[in-house]
């Protein structure tokens, strides 16, 4: 039978590298592999501190290592060793799962970003600026924008807000985008989604300058994320956040079966592309998938971004799975202050009995996603410094 | 338990549409859905003949329908009907598989293209032109280039060939690309891969004008393929060929589990993106995948582009699977004229016993891939006409 000789040999080499990296350093394993990548590009900052933050928050490290796909159909089965009887182990109760603490990871990233913002101010007299365009009066969108602006303030990034009424025209939104495109104090532009239904979302997003596209939705950024060997300027924040959580918890991604539920440009699509760059075997499940529970049950890693409360039940999950829940779905709760609370796509109480690691909602992916927005804005400001020198 | 109410309702609606389309017309089912898409763009040709060829060979139809992802967690189980005893059927021997005949499909597409080339000449005095850049003396590359030029000649497309020695510099190749970019009689440019190892493939491909990128490798084309609601100017030819074969055989793609083996930018990546646009559930298997045979065995559709002879055995396949084999691997054969013959990634003799439909190698994907190159070149010439009027 055909066996994948070289693929497996490379995997073994990587596993050995990973083991030694784990033993010798606290940095996520794959960063050490990345250092050998041919396509690391230079950054503006040069201090040790600068490098640390860069490794934690910007594109090159998050893009994974650069290894060749080598298949082989040569037979490789080694001669079978003579079996040695081993004592039957006494079954142990399963270890409690790791609850992945997005808040503390986000806090750590934000404190690195704060230091960088000060460095940039001191060295280049430049303060990173993020412009947010909010159209209409959706309460959830208003909340998200408030969080983002608050997070900017906390790390020293200047924020700009353009608020437009629901009834405004598409061209008025594009005028706002254009003004921010031309404003040198703005390094990142974010159009809060969803836009009112009478607007062409793609046209408006397409108007954002490629160099200020901190949401990473520009097709050129998406194409450069999809194509191995290329570097997008920006990666969508939620996808980066998912990878940050996995890498910082040293979850092995290479060859692992990752099921991504949902395929939006905001989360599902970029996360599936990013996981492929980390050599995961990715399956993309969506609303048209027949029996989504069956394919999800095969996963070593589940990333859910369907936007459906409690869609993923305990019965959908394999024992030991790692679960990253990107869903933030409001559900009625008369005991809560506002009459509702946020819940994930994953039924937490059921999943926690099966998973080896899981993110809570709230307090999981959300805070890290906002930290990644700050990180992308910082990157945009650094890039502006670099191109002006 | 959570059930996907709306997703399923939409699926039922699509199935009903498909059934009525199948009953009333010979055109592939999904084309009828596409007609309802909001984003069909106009073409230069306006005759009935023109529309037919367009439906068969160019971007909009191949991109699939535009349907919303609607999940729901509402319970939907209908009341169970009272079971009526049915007679136990006598097992029938499995039907022989369909051998998908790429040669005849390619011939059909080419004859449509020929008519269009004549139309374009008569209406706009424009003859489509394809430029091929061949570096070095690889025998397989020379053969492929020969086939492509012969195919151009047969349909009336003018071909241009730049042959450079293996020892030439990267800049000399880029000079060739630039000359063809500037030449108005050239509408499509193809750099035959692989390039010699001392060259930066991405830099050379990146020099090809977006409007002449008939191979569809430009990151903007890849990004526009990945993002639903957007239209790439060109889709890589082998990916289009795979979809042509599936659509013309009226293989149902919506919700089906498609396993794509290999993830190159030439085949695996664009095919996985294109299948997602047709609402398939896609898993991407590669050289780092653990136990690739297990995930492949779950597939309703297998598309293999690993470049490993006989990698996919009969035991990797589920009964009734549809197999599209993109591999063309030379293997030694003393009985053949040149001492070798071409074989696919799939062990044909084993797979044919399990599959419901399968492409042979040679005579499957290959000829249709070349037809898609001609189709992309024709599209590029039409686009040039459109932008000059």
UniProtKB/TrEMBL annotation, chains A, B:
**What job does the chain carry out?**
Catalyzes the oxidation of 5,10-methylenetetrahydrofolate to 5,10-methenyltetrahydrofolate and then the hydrolysis of 5,10-methenyltetrahydrofolate to 10-formyltetrahydrofolate.
User: Domain Tetrahydrofolate dehydrogenase/cyclohydrolase NAD(P)-binding: where?
Assistant: 236-383
Q: Please give the InterPro entries that the UniProt record associates with this protein.
A: Aminoacid_DH-like_N_sf (IPR046346), NAD(P)-bd_dom_sf (IPR036291), THF_DH/CycHdrlase (IPR000672), THF_DH/CycHdrlase_cat_dom (IPR020630), THF_DH/CycHdrlase_NAD-bd_dom (IPR020631)
Presence of the UniProt keyword Iron in the record: no
Q: Its GO CC terms?
A: cytosol
Q: Does the keyword Hydrolase apply?
A: yes
- Which GO molecular function, any one, fits this protein according to its record? methenyltetrahydrofolate cyclohydrolase activity
Instruction: Relate the assembly described in the record.
Output: Homodimer.
The organism of origin for this protein: Rhynchospora breviuscula
What is the protein name stated in its UniProt record? Methenyltetrahydrofolate cyclohydrolase
This protein's pathway reads:
One-carbon metabolism; tetrahydrofolate interconversion
Listed SUPFAM superfamilies = Aminoacid dehydrogenase-like, N-terminal domain, NAD(P)-binding Rossmann-fold domains
Recorded family membership: Belongs to the tetrahydrofolate dehydrogenase/cyclohydrolase family.
């Amino acid at each position: 039978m055909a066996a994948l000789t070289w693929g497996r040999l490379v995997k073994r080499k990587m596993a050995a590298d990973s083991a030694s990296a784990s033993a010798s350093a606290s940095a996520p394993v794959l960063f050490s592999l990345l250092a050998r990548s041919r396509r690391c590009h230079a950054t503006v900052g040069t201090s040790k501190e600068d490098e640390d933050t860069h490794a934690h928050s910007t594109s090159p490290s998050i893009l994974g290592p650069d290894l060749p796909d080598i298949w082989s159909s040569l037979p490789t089965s080694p001669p079978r060793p003579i079996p040695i009887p081993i004592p039957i182990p006494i079954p142990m109760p399963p270890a409690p799962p790791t609850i992945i603490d997005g808040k503390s990871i986000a806090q750590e990233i934000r404190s690195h970003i704060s230091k960088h913002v000060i460095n940039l101010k001191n060295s280049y007299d430049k303060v990173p600026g993020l412009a947010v365009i909010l159209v209409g009066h959706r309460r959830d969108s208003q909340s998200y924008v408030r969080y983002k602006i608050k997070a900017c303030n906390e790390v020293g990034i200047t924020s700009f807000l353009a608020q437009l009424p629901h009834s405004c025209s598409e061209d008025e939104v594009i005028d706002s985008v254009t003004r921010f495109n031309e404003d040198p104090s703005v390094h990142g532009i974010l159009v809060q989604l969803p836009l009112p239904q009478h607007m062409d979302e793609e046209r408006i997003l397409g108007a954002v300058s490629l160099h200020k596209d901190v949401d990473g939705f520009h097709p050129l950024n998406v194409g450069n994320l999809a194509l191995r060997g290329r570097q997008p300027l920006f990666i969508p924040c939620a996808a980066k956040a998912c990878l940050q959580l996995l890498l910082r918890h040293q979850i092995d991604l290479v060859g692992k079966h990752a099921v991504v539920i949902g395929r939006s440009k905001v989360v599902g699509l970029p996360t599936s592309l990013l996981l492929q760059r980390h050599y995961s075997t990715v399956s993309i499940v969506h609303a048209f998938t027949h029996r989504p529970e069956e394919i999800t049950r095969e996963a070593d890693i589940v990333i859910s971004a369907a936007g459906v409360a409690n869609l993923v039940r305990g019965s959908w999950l394999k024992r030991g799975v790692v679960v990253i829940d990107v869903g933030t779905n409001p559900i009625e709760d008369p005991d809560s202050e506002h009459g509702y609370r946020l819940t994930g796509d994953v039924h937490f109480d059921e999943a926690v009995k099966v998973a080896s690691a899981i993110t809570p909602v709230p307090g999981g992916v959300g805070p890290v996603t906002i930290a990644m927005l700050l990180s992308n804005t910082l990157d945009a400001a650094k890039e502006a410094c670099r191109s002006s020198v």
